[in-house]
Amino acid sequence: MMKVLLAGYNVDYDLIRDLREKSGLTQDITPETISAAYARISRSPKSVDQLRVDARAEVEKARRSNRNIVFEMGHSSVAEHAVFNIDVIGVSRLLVEEIEKFRLCSYTEKSQRYVLFDRDFVVPEEIVRAGMEKDFVETVRMQNDFYHELYEWLRPWVFEQNRELAENPANRSLLEGWAKEDARYAIALATRTQLGMTINARNLELMLRRLASLPLAEARLCSEKLYAATRDIAPSLIRYTRATDYDRLTRPRLRTKAEMLLAKRPQEAPSGKFADVRLVSATPGADRQAAAALLFASSGLSYGQCQSRSARLNHRELKGLFQTVFDNMQPYDAALRELENIDLQFELVVSAGCFAQLKRHRMATIIAQDYDPRLGVTVPPSVRAVGRQKKFMTVMEATQRAHDRIRNKLPSAPPYLLTNAHRRRVLMKFNARELYHLSRLRADAHAQWDIRNLSEKMLRQARRLMPLTLMMACGKDGFAALTQKVFPGA
Question: What percent of the chain stands above pLDDT 90?
Fold first, then answer.
């Protein structure tokens, strides 16, 4: 007989602590027992709910079992059954970029698009030790003063440009948010923020090691605090928390090696003109390769046979196949998994404000260079519209001078001083299915203008190479019109 039982769910830790104190319970309350019970499913004749009962009754035995299975036998996936919800408060935007590199976790971050930030920022320990604190603080305060000044200029302009929306008081927060999201281009990556994070024990252990290996003192401190907050909850699942030579040395040595190899050839500084979106590679014959995958999933033929059949389809037949795929799609439907066989790789030049959103598409492969002031800054069109571009650039130039002074002493710390307007190069690889997901969110009229512009350019370039595969790729707001175009009789 089928049974589906609830084994557990997220509960606020303060509530757990209060209930434990009031009940006088002495037994450890830990997710380790779930990991231990699930680890035994493959080797025990008992039902899984009974295995959970056994694990709860003998927590220390469960912990010994976890240590043996996870660390001695190497079945690390067992640790994924233990999940933590963690508040991360008072960290810099720069550190958030390091935290959110971990793909199999969930994050919800305080948004600079919707919240008007105060003048609170991180002063890096390295800056203080080097005697550069005064220069750093003065620069960030200048940025913050301009941020608030810019918001006061942008807010009435946004309301004026959107009179119909402004007539309804319910839209006030939305319109104020549009002003905030453009004003934020003036504030630094040192700005303090907070986030909620959901992470399993396996990924937490990896995060602890990686953060401990970074050159930033703030990252190392975050690793220590994360470990302190969780070590007593699931000690049997988290063991390797210290920085390793692999994590600590590989990147710096690779950078040195790259500099040595590239020094043999003339170096080119970034020019004032460059493509901010460039499709550098894609699966050859993408439409027919996608068609082959669709035929494979829907037949008993080998993939080679499906490739051969796909190559012989005429355009009408090929288009008909894709129309069958998309005929009943709605804007909330995920594209079929067969489209994951089609890869695209883009080189992008994005602002920090844009990257903050782009990095949330974590299932893509995102390789980002350091922020490079030589790539210039992104100036929101609204800043030009309200006549504050000259002041904006004055703030950016002052930031650049302070950045250069600090960089001469501390190569790793200057990024804290750069703003959401500063740019970096990004290499991003993903499949066609992920492009559907990205375009639904980011090519939509409700998306922030910077990442919307980027996404639309990516989609246009990709569609030239695979028009049938991307037949229904668009923002949510354009889905109905595109459906009418592709299926005119529907």
Answer: 74
